[in-house]
Amino acid sequence: MSLSSGRVRSSLKVAVVLGAALALGGCFQPMYAGGTMSGVLSPANAGPAGANLAAIDILPMEGRVGQQIRNQLIFVLTGGTTAPAPRFRLDVKTSVVAAQTAVVDPYTDRPEVETAGVDASFTLVQVGSGAPVFAGKAFGRATYTRTRQRFASERARRDAEDRAARIVAEQIRAQLQGHFARGS
């Protein structure tokens, strides 16, 4: 008899825990979440902050790294979907920081690890009035390994600049998202 009463108690405990989990499951929602049937959330569906992010037109930028930042911003702000009519314009000025040597081989005096950097300053402007709404700065740094093969080192530097550009785009998105979440 004690064996069956032990099973009943453990089954009852499991039922209570599952019931509580199901009851509380609808109470939690991510901060910028919206509802989609596909499970993929585009920023445009993520409430007022997401709708404002998707309505930002990003002006073309100079250089290869500037284009990488622009492409990444377009993707992270719209989620890869078609952007609505722009209500804001984002002016971004970028500069690539000269490679900085982090580690030097003590026997050959050659750099082994270097850091590539990208700095950006941006201004969010209202499309109709041309008035600045928000301004900020972002920076990205990424390390890469130098080798004795010149082309491999050059490609590694370029890939590090691309990683730094993605970091800059994410920082800009986060700052804009915070600005719109405050209701400004």
TrEMBL record:
Pfam families: LptE
Highest taxon above the source species: Bacteria
InterPro entries for the chain: LPS_assembly_LptE (IPR007485)
Keywords noted in UniProt: Lipoprotein
Protein name: LPS assembly lipoprotein LptE
